[in-house]
Design a protein that fits this description.
The protein is of the alpha/beta class. It has one domain: YbaK/aminoacyl-tRNA synthetase-associated domain (YbaK protein, Alpha-Beta Complex), CATH 3.90.960. Helices cover 27% and strands 26% of the residues. It contains 5 helices and 8 strands. The chain has a 5-stranded mixed sheet, with helices on both faces. The longest helix has 10 residues.
Length: 157
Amino acid sequence: MRTSVDVHNFLVERDVPHEVFPVRGRLRSPERLAAILELPPEEVGKVIVFEGSAGAVAAVVPAGRTPDTTKVRKAADRPDLELAADDRAAALTEYLPESLPPVGLPDGVLLVLDRSLARDAVLYFAGGEARAVLKIRGKDLVRAARATVARIASTTE
């Protein structure tokens, strides 16, 4: 399995400003991360994995939101994408689903980032381990991950 060191190294290799820091207790969800750090959900992102015949796609949306499968398919240009179960997401990304970061993913995993996160603001994500947090600006995340940016968060929350 990959760890927060892989996340950090990925970003250092690309000269991307960031922090990876520990927190007490397991984070288990982006919503819990927001609560622990006393942040609004729009400053915390979560990564949801989809799979199709062309490979895996990591969809990134704000905490408290879900990716719209139809919008993810369109943004990724992969019409057969389906939501990956947790065990499958772990196999595809080499991270535990509860600690899935938006960077440091295996080659070939496409990152699609909700447009609301592609900004200059500092964002927080699971950092690759149950007690690690990644702090990074949205615009730096887009650059580092070569992310596709689109409106993919569901509007029916």
